[in-house]
Specification:
- The chain has 398 residues and is mainly beta.
- The protein is globular, with a radius of gyration of 22 Å.
- The strands form three sheets. It has an 18-stranded antiparallel β-barrel. Strands 8-12 form a two-stranded parallel sheet.
- 28% of the residues are buried.
- The protein is built from one helix and 22 strands.
Length: 398
């Protein structure tokens, strides 16, 4: 903690006089409770952890230069692999009228769908934070962006690769797989120093928001089968070289959102199977349901993966339905519920619920529930069938 504030203080005294400066953050205490038995006795009692996030922003040169710093810290009482520190962002940005240049460690998000973000490939997944893949590690990068009436172009140079984080053997959410994340293997002889490249074009044409992307470099998704040892249920991650084309489209018409994400991923030297994948769906919002102030959004999405049962994703032929309820109250209360069902195996499904409400001006209560059900041992979800959990947290903002 002291080192974090020392770093921020160092930047504060070395930067020119600022036009605008902010510093805030949050700390959260979380408790996971698993209601199914586990072979690890200590995890039958649950899992306690704490999370700290800080955000520092400063600009100067009439706002043309900006600095963002976002350190992240997680402490877990059970799983040592889940206790980790990361710099989510430490990035300088220079802005001009129709272009900007950024360098440092940053986060970039691409995508429009709810169930999975096929096109989101710049940042590595922080796998120890949650099973949904929404949390990302900071990525060293240089980004140049050009803005024009004909669309925006982003060019990325990514000089260093971040390995995916995995839960340790003392965690419930491993699926019984022990991952040796200290001896990963790379297809490229440059290893983590391989320079990856990415390009994205985006534009808004009336109700249509369009994104087209290209990525060439080290896959953010490791292959866990190449070095899998069935006798010990352990593996070493293998990171291949890939080229990926992606498209994300969202059409907004009144209360409707129509969404699509699609990719074509090709592997260098055919070390793994090339494939295409699609997630598409709709969202409709009922404003002021039953004459109240509540807004209800209903969602439906379909996911397809060309590899079928060989897919490394849970969403290879799945239908998702869900609902998002915004109470529009003084506490900003929201509830999101969803269920995804495998269309090839009707007994394979996952259910989640996320809810949050502000207790007072600075304190928020969060609840998350994850339920997994699968009967087929060949189903990826089968590994987590005994790891359903409910998590409650109290988050303080400052």
């Amino acid at each position: 903690m002291k080192a974090i504030f020392s770093t921020l203080a160092l930047f504060a005294v070395t930067l020119p006089a600022q036009a605008y400066e902010t510093f805030n953050g949050s700390v959260e205490i979380e408790q996971r409770l698993f209601w199914q038995s586990s072979p690890i006795d200590q995890l039958d009692k649950g899992q306690t952890s704490a999370r700290l996030e800080l955000e520092y922003f400063r600009d100067w040169n009439d706002g043309k230069d900006q600095l963002e710093i976002e350190p992240f810290l997680r402490w877990d009482a059970v799983d040592d692999e889940r206790s980790h520190f990361d710099i989510r962002q430490l990035i300088w940005t220079h802005l001009e009228t129709n272009w900007e240049l950024a360098a440092g460690v940053g986060r970039v998000f691409w995508g429009v769908t709810e169930t999975q973000h096929l096109v989101d490939i710049i940042n590595q997944t922080d796998g120890v934070e949650n099973i949904d893949g929404e949390d990302k590690l900071g990525q060293p990068m240089v980004r140049y962006s050009y803005f024009d009436d004909l669309g925006n172009i982003d060019v990325f140079v990514l000089p260093y690769f971040r390995t995916r984080t995995f839960n340790g053997p003392d965690s419930r959410l491993t699926g019984g797989l022990i991952v040796d994340n200290d001896n990963e293997v790379y297809q490229s002889g440059s290893g983590q120093d391989h320079v990856d490249l990415a390009l994205r074009y985006s534009n808004t044409l009336g109700p249509v928001s369009l994104g087209l992307s290209w990525f060439s470099g080290t896959s953010r998704e490791p292959d866990l089968l190449r070095f899998f040892d069935p006798t010990t249920l352990s593996t070493t991650p293998f990171y291949p070289q890939i080229d990926q084309l992606g498209a994300d489209i969202q059409v907004t018409t009144d209360a409707w959102l129509i969404k699509l994400e699609a990719i074509q991923r090709n592997h260098s030297q055919n070390v793994l199977e090339d494939f295409a994948a699609i997630t598409t769906g709709v969202e409709y919002t009922f404003v002021g349901i039953f004459g109240s102030i509540y807004d209800l959004g209903v969602l439906a999405e379909y996911s397809w993966d060309e590899r079928g049962e060989r897919a490394t994703s849970l969403f290879q032929n799945d239908l998702f339905v869900g609902a998002r309820l915004a109470l529009n109250d003084m506490s900003d209360s929201e509830v999101l519920f969803g269920i995804a069902n495998d269309l090839d195996d009707s007994d394979s499904r996952s259910i989640f619920l996320e809810a949050a409400t502000r207790v007072d001006g600075s304190l928020t209560a969060n609840i998350e529930l994850r339920y997994f059900e699968a009967d087929n041992p060949n189903d990826l979800l089968f590994r987590f069938k005994d790891d359903s959990f409910i998590q409650v947290g109290l988050e303080y903002f400052f």
